[in-house]
Amino acid sequence: MIQVTNTIDLAEAEIEERFIRATGPGGQHVNKVETAVQLRFDAANSPSITNAVLHRLRALAGQRMTQAGVVIITARRYSSQERNRADAQDRLVELIRQAAVPPKHRRPTRPTKASKQRRIDGKKRRGDVKKGRGRIRDDG
Fold it and tell me: What is the pTM of this model?
């Protein structure tokens, strides 16, 4: 069991890992060793993910989530398979942790009378400065 929050626990069976060849520099070694990890988590069918968390997770994950609701995380930062595995799991847990926090309700507010007056005064001052610019004509 992977504990994400107090209410969300992920079973190891829910996470599918595939090891793939990493890209980038490394010579012959990178071409024969599969150190990168592609982690798949079916969030849409997970019993521990509620609809509200799934909705926020879909927004946070962006292109990392498929239409079917599967989160795909690819970790190739390290040259070790174990470190990439841990990195991918940490990134998944952090993503779900962020989605589990409900957004704060915004209470609409109105500007005070004094702040409106300060805004108007500032605009008038700026207008006066601009009015003072320009060509000076000599009428005399």
Answer: 0.66
